[in-house]
Amino acid sequence: MAILTSVYPANERGKALGFQVASVYLGLSLGPSLGGVLTHYLGWRSIFWVGLPLGIITIIATFWKLRGEWSEAKGEKFDVTGSIIYGVALVALMLGLSELPAMIGVWLLIAGVIGITLFIMLELKILSPVLNINLFRQNAVLAFANLAALINYSATSAISFLLSLYLQYLKDFSAQVAGLVLIIQPVMMTLVSLFAGRLSDRTEPRLLASIGMAITTAGLIMLIFVDANTNLAFIIMILVIQGIGFGLFSSPNSNAVMSAVERRYYGVASGMLGTMRLIGQMLSLGIATLLFSLYMGQVQITPEFYPLFLDSAHTGFIIFAVLCFLGVFASLTRRKPVAGR
């Protein structure tokens, strides 16, 4: 994302980022279906064998086509200490969420919070931080766009996980069929991201991102009413709505972030968006698994636990809908980015 922002002019940045986001979602769309076919006919190990030539092709293409240097932060030292503290703290947070509600999970979360606090204190003092905290203090667009991304991923990442279990257990679909149903959402994301990226070059990105977040909120509210007898067509309609909402949000929000910083901070801005995505995914799945533990305990999902599974899923969708609703205001709060950056 940082490279694309560097090589494309400001008036075409949204288009370029739209292609980048669409490529990600296209990969997400192809992965489950191709993986299911490979597993069915060649066994699960074939998935990893396919990854080998694809990786080699990517390396060759990178050295062949990506020429030049885009770094604008030459001479700055790499923040080794800050990177180590940050990495350890994130691992503690992720493990802590996965272990809740056990006490080891609580202690790991506390350790993670302490680690993040130490990281922030360190980054405010050194000359070349891995994360320039002052960027967020001085730049409302960057701060609130990243907050919106964190909220959006926290509210949406567990949807496919919960619906996959719902389709396989309560609807008695095979894993392959459930995957084909769920692929509708990333396909819609792919198509809408291309359109939204181009549109964000002509329209204020925060408005598009906020509309996308609002549409996603509507889809989450609809999921609250899903039960064992819900028609498959209703599920498909929700997936379409979710895909449209997230597609409208992601490209314009990325455009807003990358347009809000100077060239030498492109890498930091891109990295922060990736971090918000991964932390959001972690929090989303952490909330879902915690609700499973609270409602069902450590059990397999068998027919007698289906009502409790639905209760936990409904609670999750309520939490995610509230989060996404608040995210609309986070997306709207930021000021318009500076033109030409």
Task: Explain what the structure shows.
With 341 residues, this protein is mainly alpha-helical. It has two domains: 20-35 and 139-341, Growth Hormone, Chain: A; 79-129. Helices cover 77% and strands 0% of the residues. The protein is built from 14 helices and no strands. It has helices at 2-7, 13-42, 45-65, 80-99, 103-123, 133-138, 140-156, 159-170, 175-182, 184-199, 205-223, 232-258, 266-295, 306-333.
- CATH homologous group name of the largest domain: MFS general substrate transporter like domains
Task: Determine the CATH topology of the largest domain.
Answer: Growth Hormone, Chain: A
Average pLDDT across residues? 84
Overall body shape? globular
The succession of helices and strands, N to C, reads HHHHHHHHHHHHHH
**Which class best fits the helix and strand makeup?**
mainly alpha
First-last Cα distance: 15 Å
What is the radius of gyration computed over CA atoms, rounded to a whole number of angstroms?
Answer: 21 Å
Number of self-contained structural domains: 2
Give the helix tally: 14
Catalogue the unreliable spans: 336-341
List the helices and strands and how they pair.
Blueprint: H1 2-7, H2 13-42, H3 45-65, H4 80-99, H5 103-123, H6 133-138, H7 140-156, H8 159-170, H9 175-182, H10 184-199, H11 205-223, H12 232-258, H13 266-295, H14 306-333
Helix pairs in contact: 2-9, 2-10, 2-12, 4-5, 4-13, 7-12, 7-13, 7-14, 8-9, 8-14, 10-12, 11-12, 11-14, 13-14
